[in-house]
Amino acid sequence: TIFHWGLHPWAIYAVVALALALFSYNKGLPLTLRSAFYPIFGERVWGWPGHVIDVLAVLATVFGLATSLGIGAQQAAAGLDFLFGLGTTNGMLVVLIVLITLVAIGSIIRGLEGGVKVLSEVNMGLAALLLVFVILAGPTLAIVTGFFENLVAYGRYLPELSMPFGREDANFASGWTAFYWAWWISWSPFVGMFIARVSRGRTVREFLIAVLIVPTVLSVLWMTAMGGTAIGQVIGEGYTAVQDAALELKLFQMLTQLPLTAITSFVGIVLVVVFFITSSDSGSLVIDTIAAGGKTNAPVIQRVFWASFEGMVAIALLLGGG
Q: Which of 237-254 are b and which e, b meaning 16 or more Cβ less than 10 Å from the residue's Cβ?
């Protein structure tokens, strides 16, 4: 888990973000994907080659976000059903996607500072509270020692795991690594541009520390606390329900063994929902910027259109293929 959520995705995002930031802020080109290809295509980036690049970036972002939105709705629905017995039917999932999209639209209308930033800060605050709670209420010593052990193990096995193709375990390469790499790459235009937008004025060293090191260390801490607690419940306490539960219910099954289950499970649901709201609204800002040729002050109605379109694609994918 740490391998797939550690340096690899953030390295992919950093490459895109650094290229965009360099050509936009240092070279004076528009903040859009085609600008990063200026050294290759020259003035042709303002013609059809540039249009193709930006269209591909928009499509990758829309489908990457729509897929994530569908998965997030499934986990939120599973959590609500776990707590309140509301069911996980397609109708419930559609309602959740519509609600997430509406809140994202409201955030977009308020803008980057008044909407997206506020939601992101609320989300990070809730995530930090849940993390601290699990560390204190769970096997604290095992989590703390496991954090450092996992960092060492990650560094030790990173070179071997980074070349998974040709291994005996074909599922590791095709079912995990290739899937995640495709997901990170589909998100890279969106996350890369968003990181570039909020990184103006930073040095390259500051940028790389903030984009590569900090998220990776925090991811290792999160995975160690949540995953380590669940593994401890299975191995140490014989609590196999967390192991046998459906993927989207594992978090909630783990929390049932800790105090204040109803409260922490509800916080978990809110976190899942708000994470995807912030992904949707920031993604819509990025798509709008790309579609507008690098303009960051395009009409609000365009951002509303892209947020709505993401929700509709997510619903179509969900109803069409599950």
A: eebeebeebeebbbbbbb
